[in-house]
Write a structure and sequence with these properties.
The chain is mainly α and 202 residues long. Helices cover 68% and strands 0% of the residues.
Length: 202
C-alpha cells in the first residue's frame, strides 16, 4: 500500500510538471503566432504581377459537341477559367501570404488560389464522368492535364490509374506512385496506398 501511494504521488508530480511544460510551449506558440500575424498585418503591398500564374490550355482539352446536358455543364465549368487568374498557394497560410506579398494582397491572391482549387475539382469531375461513359482516351487527357497542374485529388489519381491498367500499362501507375510520393500533397500517403492496391489487384 505505501509503495502504491508513493508511486501515485510521483505520478501526480510528474503529471503537473508535464502539464506546466505543455502550457509553456502552448503559450510560446501562441505568442510566436501573434507576433508573426502582427508583422504580417503591417507588411506593405508588394508587386504580384510576376508570380507564376497558371493559364488553362483549352486547346488540348477534349471539348465536344455533345448533347449530354451534364457533360455540357462540366465542360462549361472548365471553360469559365479561360480568362481567370489562377495561382497555386497550397502550403501557405494567410499569415504567410501577407508576409510574402503584403496584407493588402491577401484577398486577391486568395481568390486566385480558390480559382486554382476549383479548376482542379472541375477537371476531376469532368474526367471522372468521361471515364464512367467509357470515353477513356478523353478522360485520360483531362486527368493527365489536371495532374500536370499539380492536382492532389485522390480520384484523379485512381481513375487515371484504372485507365492505365485497362491499357496494360502498370508501369505508368508506378510512375504515378513515384509522383505522389515526391509531392507535398496532404493525402499523399493515402493516395499512394490506393494506387498500390490497384496495382496489386491488376
Amino acid at each position: 500500500m505505501p509503495t502504491f501511494f508513493i508511486c501515485f504521488i510521483l505520478f501526480i508530480l510528474w503529471f503537473r510538471v508535464k502539464t506546466k511544460q505543455s502550457s509553456k510551449e502552448e503559450n510560446k506558440s501562441i505568442e510566436e503566432f501573434l507576433t508573426r500575424e502582427q508583422e504580417a498585418n503591417f507588411t506593405r503591398k508588394k508587386d504580384i504581377s510576376n508570380l507564376e500564374y497558371i493559364s488553362v490550355n483549352m486547346e488540348i482539352l477534349p471539348f465536344s459537341d455533345t448533347t449530354d446536358e451534364y457533360e455540357i455543364q462540366l465542360e462549361n465549368n472548365v471553360k469559365k477559367f479561360a480568362d481567370k487568374k489562377l495561382l497555386n498557394l497550397s502550403g501557405l497560410t494567410n499569415t504567410d501570404i501577407k508576409l510574402l506579398y503584403g496584407s493588402a494582397n491577401l484577398d486577391i491572391l486568395s481568390s486566385y488560389d480558390q480559382n486554382y482549387t476549383l479548376l482542379l475539382r472541375d477537371l476531376n469531375k469532368w474526367g471522372a464522368y468521361l471515364f464512367q461513359k467509357e470515353r477513356y482516351s478523353d478522360s485520360k487527357t483531362v486527368l493527365e492535364y489536371a495532374l500536370s497542374l499539380g492536382s492532389d485529388i485522390t480520384e484523379t489519381y485512381t481513375t487515371l490509374a484504372k485507365i492505365y491498367l485497362s491499357e496494360d500499362s502498370p508501369e505508368k501507375v508506378q510512375k504515378l506512385i513515384e509522383q505522389i510520393s515526391e509531392s507535398d500533397a496532404y493525402l499523399k500517403d493515402s493516395i499512394k496506398l490506393s494506387l498500390i492496391k490497384l496495382l496489386q489487384e491488376y
